[in-house]
């Protein structure tokens, strides 16, 4: 039996809503990884300065 | 000894795994456990004789936190089957299917190795080796070997959680001293009554999951008796930092008062047939360790400021 147009539209809405959530979470994850990497760069730089300075 | 494995647990479909958020990965690090680990590690750093540059001290704390969290992530990867059947843990990202098991394992291993390498290279290799030992002990000895086999799992496995003050100490001095071993023993002896208090009011959970915690295997009465024994042994041990000159009179007073209250909690649990006292003792056990190390840190900072 063929699905009614309204059911298909509802399924499409649900899919796109899930996709929006997925993309939002992925962007959040990417930003978190970027933040961690940046923090590590700064930390390694400061550690190097301290170690080279005899700290 | 019993050997228990949950094999036929149906895990949720992992279609949501691609949508795992940064918060899900952060949850893998067991942030609440990490708080106490960081605090006791910081105590080791503060009370150790000598000086460590603040940046390196911060790095050491970061490595302890990440190393402990990474071991927690590997623990969640290994225990995802039993976590799915326990009320307390079924909301975790792995049983919920929000993170793929392989991703969780890779996350834990990379962070674990990274934390040890950073500790070794930036601070010193004694602290790095102790961090590696603590992580390996938690994963291989506690999680994989003991947890599902013996009711003594958290007694021996508790050693993993006792390492942080030793690591903090080693970060400053580069060695392992009697005083740092005392701090290790303090947490080691605190762990059984702390965990068994939890296990008493969560015994149904552990039974369903097939984890042979002491209340499941030996019963509530025996567990309560052993909890009292450990709190009594902890009382003089908590005083030991004062005896070896690591702490002063304020700590001594606090250790005696807090230790007596901990013993009183254990006696109440022994006499109480309901779970109420066990829940209260679990809460107090966290406060006990926090206050004990806060006294150690506070007294040392005040003493240094006025001398």
Name a few traits of the molecule.
heterodimer; A: 55 residues; mainly alpha; B: 307 residues; Tetracycline Repressor, domain 2; 2 domains; 15 helices; globular; disordered N terminus
Notes on the protein architecture:
The complex is a heterodimer of chains A (55) and B (307). Chain A has 55 residues and is an all-alpha fold. Chain A contains one helix and no strands. Chain A has one domain (1-55). Chain A is rod-shaped and about 75 Å long. The mean pLDDT of chain A is 84. Chain B is mostly helical. Chain B folds into two domains: 21-175, UbiA prenyltransferase (Tetracycline Repressor, domain 2); 177-302. In chain B, 75% of the residues lie in helices and 0% in strands.
List the helices and strands and how they pair.
The complex is a heterodimer of chains A (55) and B (307).
Chain A: H1 5-52
Chain B: H1 22-28, H2 31-47, H3 54-78, H4 80-83, H5 101-123, H6 125-146, H7 153-157, H8 159-162, H9 164-173, H10 178-201, H11 203-209, H12 214-217, H13 220-243, H14 249-271, H15 276-305
Largest interface (C-beta under 8 Å): A-B, 15 and 12 residues
What is the makeup of the main sheet of chain B? none
Name the helicity range of chain A: over 70%
List the domain count of chain B as a whole number: 2
Which regions of chain B have little confidence, pLDDT < 50, spanning 5+ residues? 1-15
Which geometry of chain A do the CA atoms define?
rod-shaped
Question: DSSP strand (E) fraction of chain A?
Answer: under 5%
Distance between the termini of chain A: 76 Å
Q: What is this entry, summarized?
A:
Chain A has one helix at 5-52. Chain A is mainly alpha-helical.
